[in-house]
Task: structure prediction
Amino acid sequence: MDPGLSSRFPNVVTLKDYTSLEFSQIFDKLIRDMKTAEGRTWTYNTALSQVVGRRIERSSGVEGFGNAREVRNYVLRVKDRYYDRIGDTGDFIFTTEDILGMFFLIII
Result:
């Protein structure tokens, strides 16, 4: 970090990390608000958002953690897994594998 920053910006704001419930709610909202190119909405098992919230919460508390940015990045990974699995044509339904990844399926 630039040592001159602290003299130019003497006030430090520390934001509290969200809870797993808040991460889950952000995840749900981002998925609900996301539209396909055709204007359709995505479908998924909303119970999985609780698992997502807990996963993201485990990452919190470290320097550089980005709260809602982490959720947005997670949603982008879900979407990438969907397109890797289905391609551009599909049913617009996120599966458990899309949301939780292959690692989760191997453990079960």
